[in-house]
């Protein structure tokens, strides 16, 4: 009975928390909309004669400053406990609005103030677009992490396809960026992949594909089971986002190292770094609430795939260095 009484007592607090979250979401949109409206007033006031009086100009400046301060306060007051990953797009959206208004002011300060210019129109439209972003921000940390991981999946896919295209199109991966004289100057050794190079690249591609598979599995797990009901669960989402953030740059580094002339020692080191990053992320997800017992099979499979591909890379790189 005591437990039931405790649960009943907490219901109003839970309802209040949900209500405040809804209010906060409305405030973000309203503050951005108000900033957009004030920027429009400012632009229109300085688009044609007669110019506003000194007093009206001061009022316009004060009004838009208040809107910008209100918008910035939303970010600064946004609790970190709601998610570090979620704070990032809010900060980026706020900075874009501030930059857009500064650009508009710079144009107004140097324009002849006779008629509205194309630059002024574009700058005003830029402020509108920046303010509109607030309607499309992630609603919670789970959504923010999903957006972030989706961007990493796309970047890893682009890097993989870049290398696949280079391998399939020509023996010389620089043929589309160098003229004949430059290729002759570099010599065949510097511009062509040897058969051993291609064998090494195929093993590295296995590691890159494993990176893409890891990110896709992370996304699926968060999508199906991710929760933001406790600070601990929110923090676990942030932990996965932090570890996943290192994967795409590591893939890019590996792809770049595979262009001729291939430095086998460098490839070995960079592949090892990527494998370490993947293993670290897989280890982190093991202890996250969104990784269920049924998910452990693919976690173990991917850990094995990373180890296997890294071992293959090392065998080739050490044997040819």
TrEMBL record:
- Supply the alphabetized keyword list: Cell cycle, Cytoplasm, Nucleus
Location of this chain's protein in the cell: Cytoplasm; Nucleus
Q: Which residues form the signal peptide?
A: none
Residue ranges of every copy of the Cyclin-D1-binding protein 1-like N-terminal domain listed in the record: 30-168
What's in the GO CC field? Answer: cytoplasm; nucleus
* Domain Cyclin-D1-binding protein 1-like C-terminal: start-end pairs: 178-281
Could you tell me which Pfam families the record lists for this protein?
Answer: GCIP_C, GCIP_N
InterPro entries from the UniProt entry: GCIP-like, GCIP-like_N, GCIP_C
Q: Which family does it belong to?
A: Belongs to the CCNDBP1 family.
Name this protein carries in UniProt: Cyclin D-type binding-protein 1
This protein's species is Electrophorus electricus (Electric eel)
Q: What is the lineage of its organism?
A: Eukaryota, Metazoa, Chordata, Craniata, Vertebrata
């Amino acid at each position: 009975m005591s437990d039931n009484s405790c649960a009943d007592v907490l219901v109003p607090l839970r309802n209040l928390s949900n209500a405040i979250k809804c209010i906060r979401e409305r405030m973000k949109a309203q503050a951005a909309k108000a900033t957009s409206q004030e920027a429009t007033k400012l632009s229109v006031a300085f688009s044609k004669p007669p110019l506003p009086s000194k007093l009206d100009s001061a009022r316009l400046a004060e009004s838009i400053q208040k809107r910008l301060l209100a918008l910035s306060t939303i970010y600064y007051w946004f609790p970190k406990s709601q998610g570090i990953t979620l704070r990032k797009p809010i900060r980026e959206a706020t900075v874009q609005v501030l930059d857009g208004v500064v650009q508009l002011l710079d144009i107004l300060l140097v324009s002849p103030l006779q008629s509205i210019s194309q630059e002024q129109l574009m700058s005003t439209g830029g402020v509108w677009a920046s303010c509109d972003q607030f309607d499309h921000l992630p609603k919670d940390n789970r959504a923010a992490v999903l957006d972030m991981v989706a961007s990493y999946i796309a970047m890893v896919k682009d890097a993989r396809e870049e290398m696949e295209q280079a391998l399939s199109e020509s023996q010389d991966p620089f043929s589309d960026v160098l003229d004949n004289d430059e290729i002759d100057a570099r010599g065949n050794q510097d511009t062509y992949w040897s058969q051993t190079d291609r064998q090494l690249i195929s093993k590295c591609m296995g590691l890159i594909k494993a990176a893409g598979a890891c990110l896709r599995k992370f996304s699926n797990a968060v999508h199906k089971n991710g929760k933001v009901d406790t600070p601990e669960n929110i923090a676990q989402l942030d932990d996965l986002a932090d570890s996943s953030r290192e994967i795409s740059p590591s893939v890019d580094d590996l792809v770049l190292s595979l262009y001729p002339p291939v430095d086998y020692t460098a490839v070995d080191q960079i592949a090892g770094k990527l494998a370490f990053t993947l293993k670290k992320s897989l280890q982190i997800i093991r202890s996250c609430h969104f990784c269920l017992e049924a998910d452990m099979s693919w976690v173990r499979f991917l850990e094995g795939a990373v180890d296997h591909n890294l071992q293959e890379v090392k065998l080739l790189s050490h044997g040819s260095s």
